[in-house]
Amino acid sequence: MKSLYRILLLPAIWLFVLASCGDNGKKSNQNEPIEIYDPQYATGFRILYYQDYKVLETKKERYYLFKDRKTKVEKDSIVIRIPVNSMACMAQSQWAAAVILGEMESITGMCDAKYIHDSLFRERLSAGLIKNIAVNQTINYELLLTLQPQLLMLSFDNMQSIGMLQNIGIPVIVNSDFLENHPLGRAEWLIFIAALYDKDEQAKEFFNRSVQRYHAFAELATTEHYRPTVFDGSEANGIWYVSGGQSYMARFYQDAGADYLWKQNNDAASIPLDFEAVYYKGLSADFWRAYLPYAKDYDELKRENSHYADLKAWKERKIFYCDNLHTDLFGIGVYQPEVILADMIKVFYPARLPEHQPKYYDFLKE
User: Fold this and answer.
1) Domain total for the chain?
2) Considering the chain, what is the average pLDDT of its residues?
3) Which of 26, 76, 130, 280 is 20 to 30 Å from 206 by CA-CA measure?
4) pTM greater than 0.85
5) Any idea what the CATH number is for the domain that residue 322 is in?
6) What's the domain range around 284?
C-alpha cells in the first residue's frame, strides 16, 4: 500500500517542482522588457516597454518614462512623467511632431521662432502662448526658468547647456533626428516624440502609412531606364556646398530615380568645394536643385553669378528648389518624406505623376 502511495505521489511532486520552476522563471524576467520597438529605418533610438513604464534609449542616454512612479531606477537616471503636458523645443521638426500628434498646445517655447512660418505657430507666438527661448541655439535661461516647461528637447548634445538646465531643474531630452541619412529614418523619430505623449501607436500608424506611400512612389521611379543627372547646392563667397553621397538628400535623388553626380562620395554631411569644381562637373547635368532660401527667378540668379547661365539646367529651365518662406520643409516636411519624394519624381519624370501637385519642391519660375 505504501508503494502504491509513493507511485501516486511522485507525479504530484514533479508537477509542483515544474510549476515552481516556471514561477521562478517569470520572476527572473521581471526586469526584461515586454516589448522592444527597434526602428525600421532610424538608427539613433529604440523603445523598451515594461509592465508599468517604458525606456527611450538613444546611443548616449536612457530616459525612463512613467505614468505613475512605482518602479525603482538607478540613481541619477533621467525620469520623465508622461504624458508630457508642457515642452520647449529647439527644432522646428519637434513642433511639427506635436501638431501631428494633436499636442500643439503643449509647446510653450521654441528656438529661433522668427524663422518658423507655419500659420498655427505664428498665431500662438503672436498670442504669447509660445515664447522665443533661444537664438542660434543660445538659450535664454532666465526666460526658460520663467516658463518652467516640464521638459526641454535639444537637437544635439550640448553638455554646457545640459549642465545649466539640470542646475535649474529642467529635464532635458536629446532628439538627434537630423543625424539620420534615410528620409524614412528621420521621419521615424515621430515615434520617439510620441512616446513622451504616450501616443506611440498613433505615431506608428502615421509612420507606417508614410512608409507604404514612400515605397509605392519609389517603385514608380525604378521602372525608368534613363536616369537624369542632378547636382545641388549654391555658391557663396567662392565656396559651393553640395550634399554628401551618403546624405539625406542623396537618398532622395536615388529613390526618385535620378543619378546624383556625387553619389560615389562617402560623406553624409555637405561637402565644401571650389566653385570651379562644381561648375565644370555640373555644366551638362540635366537638373540642378538649387539652395535658395528665398524665392528668386532665372534673371536674378544670373545677376548673382553670370556663370550660372552656362549650365544646361539653367538653359533648359530645369532648376528646382524649395521656397522656405512658404513651405514647412523643416517642420511637417520631415514627417512627409513620401510627399518630398513625389515632388522630386514629378520634377524628374513628370508623366509618372501627372496629377501630383508639388508641395515642397518645384521648378524655379521665370
Assistant:
1) 1
2) 89
3) 130
4) yes
5) 3.40.50.1980
6) 224-363
